[in-house]
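Interim report, section 4.2 (structural modelling).
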Amino acid sequence: MGQQVRIEVNGTTHEREVDPRTLLVHFLREDLALTGTNVGCETSLCGACTVLIDGEAVKSCTQLAVQADGTSVTTIEGLAQDGELHPLQTAFHEEHGLQCGFCTPGMILTAVDLLNDNPTPSADEIRQGLKGNICRCTGYHNIIKAVQRAAEGGAS
Amino acid sequence: MSGVIGTSVKRREDAALLIGKGKYCDDFTLPNMTHAVIVRSPYGHARINSVLTTEAAEHPGVIAVFTGRDVVNSDIGGVVPTGWLLPGIKTPEHPILATDTVRYAGDGVAVVVAEDRYIARDAAELVEVDYEPLDAVTDVLAAVADGAPQLFEEAPGNISFDWDLGDAEATAAAFDRAAHTVEVDLRNNRLIPHAVEPRGCLASFDDTSGELTLYVTTQNPHLHRLLMSLASLNLPEHKMRIIAPEVGGGFGSKIHHYPDEAIASFCSMQIGRPVKWIATRSETNLTDAHGRDHASHAEIALDAQGKILGLRVKTHAAMGAYLSTFAPAVPTYLYGTLLSGQYDIPAIHVQTLGVFTNTSPVDAYRGAGRPEATFVVERLIDMAADATGLSVVEIRRRNFVSKDDFPYQTAVALAYDSGNYDGAMDRALELSGYEALRAEQKRRREAGDTKLMGIGISSFIEACGLAPSQVVGALGAQAGLYESGKVRVHPTGSVTVYTGSSAHGQGHETTFAQVVADRLSIDVDQVEVVHGDTGEVPFGMGTYGSRSAAVGGSAISTALDKVIAKSRKIAAHMLEASEDDVVFEDNAFHVRGVPSKSQGWGDVVLAAYLAHNLPEGLEPGLEETSFYNPENFTYPFGTHICVVEIDSETGAVELQRYVAVDDVGNVINPMIVDGQVHGGLAQGIGQALWEHAVYSDDGQLLSGTLLDYAVPRAHNLPFFETDRTVTPCPHNPLGVKGVGEAGSIASPATVTNAVVDALSPYGVKHMDMPLTPEKIWRAIHRNGG
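Predicted structure of the assembly:
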């Protein structure tokens, strides 16, 4: 019944047999024990589950693992390089861009994609770029500032 | 180090959260773990004729299926209690799984336990429940109308309680002699909390030891343990360990004891394996305790000079289908007591009816009663300004409690401890450039601008730092509201603090470390803060009601007093000085007047643990616990001002500026305090403009997903302009008041006042939230626009 997938996650290639209905987020969280990717709504509406697939921000709660076959996935666990935080991670810390932290992995990965597309966004462009991700704690104020800070530091 | 209080120390919590290593409830996996899915009523009100579980139970991978009957036939308590009683209150039983009747869409009827969550969900579809639909009632006023469907025989008219406060006669007399009176019927819209992490739990019962370990999304693990021990499970407290791991936001919704954690625990006790239950978003929206949902008739009486003589309010407050944990307190003692606002009002009377409806239960949600009170008062004040011809600023100033009149006894039980209401108003007017805004508005109106500019102001008060235990006990609380703090000094001088507060995003690990570091003059990195685990922390009451700094922080502070008192005895002994002459300063004990004689903190701490030479009768070690019981509530206040622009052709509102001046007393970490204000503002603005939990008349939640319920998103909000005045709380050792709820309390009224101000040329006096484009367009165009 299972289907073979080959997915690179954070630089490591995993070949697994998965139930075809397994959601990508559950493959990451349960098969690979990468629990940094959170599930907030299962409907692509809150963005907590956002990961990068071949560099593009994708909501992993409405994507099947088999759809990710042959791709390269980056989760929040794979963003820091050689123990050094990504500039967005540093900026979220410096600007107090997180409180409970549940939306943070998805928010940061969405911002990575945003800055790749537009390295010098205005505040309005950041707000538009992040509108698919809900944060209930910060009122977005410090999240926007964090992305601005990372952009100013050349995060893309 | 001393001086660390008042500085924006960056959060230590972030390190794990930023790299995906924060462990929330769903991130835990235990050996042999199973998954539960709860079968819920699709009807708002129905009789259960039968529940057939055979097919579900036979589904491959299913371990067990339980119904309400199985709970009744077990030896657990099987009901969730309410924790606040009022005189004459009706408290119908709330079973963790329904047996005969379901009373809201989402009421649990059965639970399926399976090897994985996919199988459990499949099998839940196979449980056959034969429902006989009954008439439902979801609107709070419809529920008290003659002939309304009745939820409980024991609560005729769907009334749970009929409560009042204040002097009805004196208030009536005030209205009799008033030069001006204004009245309004208003609604406070029902809200769904929407913590981004859905509720969930992982229960593991060890049937050899009889011990239950429960990871649960909670703001107060000890309260959960107490209620589960007393009512839902009947397990002894010493056999229960409740752990709040990382909790992904709460806003009140994770205070309450829900049936779900008792159901998962029951399943684990039955099958002898760990059981995980995690709500889906639509499930958490159906079953989380909602907020607000008031219908009020409110009146204000003023003399010819615009001085308020009296205020009278009658409120119908929805309780939903059952009384949740603190539900009866929210529209009574957290609401009626706040109806004096920042104003000197000689006579107030408030009556609140708690009303059962076929909806999810209603309970505390960020602000809990205080946003509702602020909305009533601040709307009435604006309407009174209109009636008296005074400006919205002047009428407030004429009625503010003067800063020289504290402590101030209100007509509704509270004694405000300190305040400077004019000061906060002055700063907000200055920061917003208020005069220039009004001039711009006048100019644009005269020019016939189709973009309607509105300016809103709200001066609010809240009662936080919940709460003096004797007082709340007299008012019906079934628990005390003190907090615990334990300070364990290690032999080498570093410190571990155990707090009964239970953070879920507030940054207590950082803030409380600052409190300790400041006091002992040690580095913040020398302080560890432990919370959220009944296995480690002394009994405590958790985090809600903006209480953690004021009560939890004070508990740590008073435990530090004890630590310093004991170490001073040891230092005096070492210095061969009188204890009275020894002072603790800059991480060392000094003999007053003898600069050469001192003992460092580290030496004294080590001496306490070596115990080779201690003062006679003194025990070794250095560890102290305090249960801090506040002597009063704290009273944060402030004035907020916002600017909106309404497109008269579409009715769309753009929030252009939001200025918040808050007085939360002393501030431990300004960065964190600002963050709390921002988050509260977003929620309150959301209530004002977009958020609304809507039920159909037959009990379906029509706004149950994030497609239909509009949580504010990044592009909906501006940057906030925040500032503070500082009037310390006079009765707690840190002088702090609490900040978690301020933004959500002030902003619904601020934004509504701005929208009504923008629409005032069209004769609009009041509008209920949410202020949707359709409602606004209709208001503009009802007279042909």
